[in-house]
Amino acid sequence: MAEFPKLRLRRLRKPNLRKIFRETRLTPENFIVPIFVDENIKSKKPIESMPGYYRIPVEGAVKEVEECLELGLGNFIVFGIPSYKDEVGSSAFDSDGVIQKTLRKLKSEFPDVVVVTDVCLCEYTTHGHCGVVKDGEVLNDETLPILGKTAVSHAECGADIVAPSGMMDGMVAAIRKALDDSGFTDIPIMSYAAKYASSFYSPFREAAESGYKFGDRKGYQMDIHNSDEAMREIELDIKEGADIIMVKPALPYLDIIRRAKEKFGYPLAAYNVSGEYSMVKAAIERGWLGEDVVYEILVSIRRAGADLIITYHAKEVVEKLQ
Ligand SMILES: [Zn+2]
User: Fold this and answer.
1) Which of 59, 64, 111, 184 has its CA 20 to 30 A from that of 289?
2) Which residues are catalytic?
3) Could you confirm whether domain 32-321 is CATH 3.40.50.2300?
4) Are residues 195 and 253 in contact, defined by beta-carbon separation less than 8 angstroms?
5) How many angstroms separate the CA atoms of 99 and 300, rounded?
6) Would the pTM count as exceeding 0.70?
7) Where in the chain are the domains?
8) DSSP state, 151?
């Protein structure tokens, strides 16, 4: 490298030049828009702890996707709020369940959009845990076949990618096998490989009615202090057949995103979670921060190494990208 005054880094920062030398770009293709579909409502319902975000009825999903497409957003992840819950979350794999109905509607209307489905049980169980529970304990191995069945039922209804989020050991292998056995060898798995037991999820629990009745999720989600363990989790999921790995949350775990991208070079998604969204919205609402922080945060997640960002900010920020 040359030295000052031969080298002046400011030369390339002139307004017409700096755009050319931007190292990180954010495009609508980088975003996945989360949609909460509620089987129990007839019209759009605001989520109090997530200003500007809504639960929508099954019938409203088409309109929601249409609006996003007009903005250039074509990737979605759907979460379901079912009308029926039980101990084992059987409405998660019901062929007439909330996600299955939504998928059929969306994929018949818009065959080219990408619909990712959340494969977990916490929205479908009465106790709100991500698996089968016995004596207050989430049973890992007993949960796996149910996840397999759920993924297959999503694939049957047109899901483009399935995304297991429950952090059960062996979930990716179980889902891969279930999909392959049913002929869905081409359906990719986006695994929530490093999902931390974070305090940033609380608004989501209101959004998806997935709060739990007892205990916590620290037995299966990751300890926030650990980074090496995240690499082992990710490696395990890749070995089990994950096509895309995910780190969740995003902002407090940018180091994990960067480390995972450097170590594995795999397609990587980051989940910019509900709490990250809500705190920014609250600060903007109070006038403490300007709206520009949203773009800066999303750029930071991309710069850290994420190819895809699941974010509630997608709609508000996408217009600024053009
Ligand atoms: Zn779950």
Assistant:
1) 64
2) 195, 248
3) no
4) no
5) 32
6) yes
7) 32-321
8) H
